[in-house]
Amino acid sequence: MCGNGAGALDIFDQGTHNRHAIRVYDAAGDLTRHVIYDQYFSQFSNPLTGAAVPYTQHNTTTDILAVPRDFTSATETITGEVNFTVPHMGAVLLNAGKTVFGAGGTLEFSAGPQGFIDCFYNGNTAALDALCTALGGS
After folding, report:
1. Is residue 3 assigned to a domain?
2. Which residues of 31-67 are buried (b: 16+ CB within 10 A; e: fewer)?
3. Distance of CA 131 to CAs 17, 59, 102, Å?
4. Strands (DSSP E) along the chain, which ranges?
5. Is residue 112 a part of any domain in this protein?
6. Which of 7, 16, 82, 86 could cysteine-pair with 138, CB 3.0–4.6 Å?
7. Which of 17, 18, 13 has the alpha carbon at shortest distance from 1?
8. CA 53 – CA 57 distance, rounded (Å)
9. Would 27 be classed as within a structural domain?
10. Structural domain count of the chain
11. Residue 70: how many CA atoms within 13 Å on its side-chain side?
């Protein structure tokens, strides 16, 4: 996930994850909406150096199914935040705001700083550079 060649490293993620889910059904008993509230108390780490970057994350994910029971027809909206801050470095990765994914996983809307979206959907791997540096990668 960070760097390439001899300086490359894999980031490990560990922590506690709490989840609360709500399901909404229509009169026929078919699922039409699924809402998930996630809360993480975690850290990214590099087990080779012992470097770690703690983070908390809070997200609400809402899936609205255009066709009841069919998750492939869902529009998924995610709101929340996960920010990685390191003493004496400040914010090394910001991810907050709102994203909307259409059926099939296509990114349709994004607002707010979205470091993970920048990297994994837009190909901007530099969005992870400060996080990788904090974990001892290059």
Report:
1. no
2. bbebebebebebebbbeeeebbbebebebebbbebee
3. 21, 21, 29
4. 12-25, 31-46, 51-65, 74-86, 90-101, 107-111
5. yes
6. 7
7. 13
8. 13
9. yes
10. 1
11. 7
Is this structure's pTM higher than 0.90? Answer: no
Q: In the structure encoding, which two tokens stand for residue 128, read together?
A: 């992870």
How far apart CA 83 and CA 104 sit, in angstroms, is: 27
> pLDDT (tens digit, 9 = 90+) per residue, 33-79?
999 999 999 999 998 889 999 999 999 999 999 999 999 999 999 99
Cα–Cα separations (whole angstroms), residue 31 to 10, 38, 61, 77: 38, 20, 15, 17
In a domain, 1, yes or no: no
User: Residue 130's domain spans which residues?
Assistant: 8-134
Give the closest residue to 40 by CA, choosing from 14, 64, 71: 14
Lowest mean pLDDT among 20-34, 60-74, 116-130: 116-130
44 is written with which tokens?
């990214």
